[in-house]
Amino acid sequence: MSLVPNSASNFTTSHKHEVDEFLTMFEAYLEDLLQLLDSPVRSLARKTVLSGGKRIRPLLCFHSSDGKKNNLDNLLKAASVLELVHVATLVHDDILDNASIRRNQKTIHTHIGDHNAILLGDALFSFALEIATDFPSNFFCRIVSQATRKTCSGEIHQTFSRGDYSIDQNQYFGFIKAKTGELFRASCQAGAYISNHSSDKVVTFGEFGASLGLIYQIFDDMLDSFGDSNSSSKSLGTDFDTGKVTLPILLLMQDADEFDRLTLSSILKTKGFPSDRTLIFDLFCKYDILEKCKFTLMSNFEHSKSIAESFQDEAIFTRLSFLLLNFEQKLNDLSMLKTRNFLAV
User: Fold this and answer.
1) Which domain holds residue 154?
2) Does residue 234 sit in helix, strand or coil?
3) Which tens digit of pLDDT belongs to each residue from 314-337?
């Protein structure tokens, strides 16, 4: 049974062409925008920004708007700013995680080196904020700047927490809300702001976006531990290898008995040995960690649904329901996850 209302399915049927049209215009707008960059940053930015991606943040911006044509230019501009900030964070994240694959391609730092990749990420950040100043009000620039700051703060918090498996779920949710949820929040706020929604509604749109960001990051954590490296478009296991605290390991540390917890702690300090990774796989099975992760994810999905339902406007609810439908499809993919992936070498 679907968790989202039939209105979302109807929206999919009657307005999918509108979404496709927006994405087509967005890609063209973004490509033109990158021509404003200085050489040689321009060619590197094109290689990185135009290499594909789900364009989730532009879609959040679009579906949080009213879809009116007279707002289209500002909507495309705002969506481009948010995507540029996002890509900049990915460039830096891949260096921090020593990830070699992104979107089925070699990561940019493997081509141009860490030093140049850091500078590229910085250039994308600054370019995004420069474009944000084009809006007549400073509201959009402020929410993007705040989201960028909080995203970096969340990443720093997570980096400082590497190898510290004593943190609790509240701390974990705190830094993933910042590192992922804040750009989702800003994306939804931007669409609502451009469509001239009331300030109260802009705030609620932001809460909806932040809740989706939490779902997305939990799913990403699960994919790192349980996904299939043969079908994934990114490097898996990098969180584990770099000591990042993710939900599967956090739940395992929380639920394991004292003996298993001490064994796990010893393994996490050394990593790398195939026999040890197989033991983690056994512990995941023993404590039913995959199912517990799914339960946490579904609980957060229900929270997002409740925020969407708080809007009295049927048109708004329908557009947000479409986003929930897309995320529900992602949740359905959980049935394909297995307890054995990179951990079971």
Assistant:
1) 6-336
2) strand
3) 889 988 988 888 777 766 776 666
